[in-house]
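Fold it.
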Amino acid sequence: MRNAQLAFIATAALLSSLAWSVDKKPPAAPVKPVIESLWGRKITDDYRYMEALDPATTAWMKAQGAYTRSVFDGIKPLSQLKLQVAQFSASFGLIQGYVRFGARGFYEERAPGSDNFDLMVSDGTGIRRIVDVAALRAANGGKPFAINFFLASPDGAKVAVGISEGGSEDAAITVYDAAGGAKIAGPIDRAQFGATSWSDDSKLLYFIRLQKLAANAPPSDKYLNATADAWDLKSEPVPILGASLGHGPAITPVEAPAIAISVGAPLAAALSINGVQNELAMWLAPAAKVNDPKVTWTKFVTRDDEVTNIDMRGSEIFLLSHKDSPTFKVLSVHAGQPLASAATLIPAQADRVLEGIHVGSDALYVLARHGAYSQLLRIPAGSTAIEEVALPFPGHIAEAFSDPRTPGVTLQLSSWVVPPTEYVFNPASKSFSELKVGVHGDINPSDYVVSDLGATAADGTMVPLSLIQPKGAKGAQMTIIEAYGSYGISDLADFSIRRASAMRKGITYGLCHVRGGGELGEQWRLGGKDANKHNTWGDLIACSEYLIAHGTTTKPKLFILGGSAGGITMGRSLTERPDLFAGVLDLVPSANTLRAEFTAGGPANIPEFGTITNAAGLANLYDMDTIQHVKKGTQYPAVMITTGLNDPRVAPWEPAKAAAALQASGTTKPVLLRIDEEAGHGIGSTKTQTDALAADVVAFVFWRAGLPEWQPSAE
């Protein structure tokens, strides 16, 4: 109690000392250098103390957030823009995660004007709301809550739902009756990674559960020693697989085990998920004996097999692999046979990336891509013939669902300027029908011109660049270029309300498909990974220079935007070419890669970014680290850095340290730290929260591009 009182007094004293008018800048963060030598390299960290997120640091961050808010609130047209963005986003009824089991459809819906996604069920009796997030918030003082995942049972009678608070993603699982919405069981905590399967009889739920941490455990322990648990909905869940159990497949504490059961398949798969690594390890055992601790799990796939996805239909097993196939291939093998006997069902092609497999009773459906645009392939059951199914319009398939017991496939298709639409493919008529769920909102695709371009990087590589412009745009335009570039994640032709909010205000929007992403397959990903990571920000710089050279924009009108691991791309583009941009929008950024492995999510990210425990890893992480490349006396463009205080993926001190370092550089342009105290990484944010960010992004662009009416009344 005494320690808590002292902490409160210290915080109150600091807040009192920071009680300046909000139109004045907060003082600089204290510099407290920590110097260490790693693998012969001297590294200075001026803000290591922030990692404790002690009361003084949190108070400094909140003061920065208050100042940032005061700057934006001083932009007079912003209040009207907020209303316009809110009205625009409210015109959409968004659907995600549609699945169908038995006679019931399950999906999340954010109805027009709603602040939250709710869980809906549709069947012959109508449409029902199973989880009402607004009611949940009202019962808890208005705090933000979100559905992080759901998994319907194979018989369509039950649905498991993971719900978290404040953007934390710390989900607890509750199981509901799909017919009436009554709670059946739960909540069960530590279920952030989600439910993975139901048993064939819909009586057992399998999910990944995090370990219960000791009070003094370091943050980096949070995701270690996870287990795959079985839950009968009556008693406590029982751990089935895990590094700490002493039975089952041998995995390390960093790996997360998961049970994967396909309805009607004789074998179940035990998957080992190694942090953010895409490649799986896999063992097989009789589905009926999954819960038996003495069952023999037979090794089926190692990470060296480079398998990233699996699906089953009875005794048929289908796998997606990039082994010797950078753009991926589809394999098929019968249960009980080793992977070495697998046949190549769809071979790799240089100009086509395979990205998903979905089994129906009639066929295997394969999601493929040419660049940012999807293609749907179909292989009828019992055949090796590959059919291409014409899509309703050019775009990207963001979601797909199939059931091995029923024919056809359900897709969600959208494009840069066409909102998401759910379609069902009927193999009998070989045609699509629209599900008629959701509302498309207030956007006219014909108001925009989409161009697929290419910029030449410094090493001669052609980097794809998607550009969306207002029809009739002439001369140099205010332009945002977005980029990501990690994990093999691709920026594809998907619709985004945040992007559309900028586009409809006349801003030209580009997507630079940098290396490190998966747009052109595994080689594209590896071209922006580890020692090649510099290509990621080099590609963004090339896209930026291309648009300037071709007259699309100019340096005073050019902005870059990215977030999370895309913060590496933003930060290093900023430090590499501070002369090139009018502004940088750095959202929940990974900015201090040298220290990231000591965060909760750090160990899981080592396969993607490396570790400081070896010389090569240190060199690569140093090269990615924004803070280590901020130089005193350099004039940087204006920067808005964002964070949520509940962020479980990028610790809030990373954006805070980046803001402190840039502010201390001596740059005269604004370096703003935007804080959302009731948000996390953006996953689970409410419509109100995402609308506010979208409006601030547009206001930042208009302000820094020099529009007179968008200048703050007091900077």
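The chain is about 20% helix and 35% strand.
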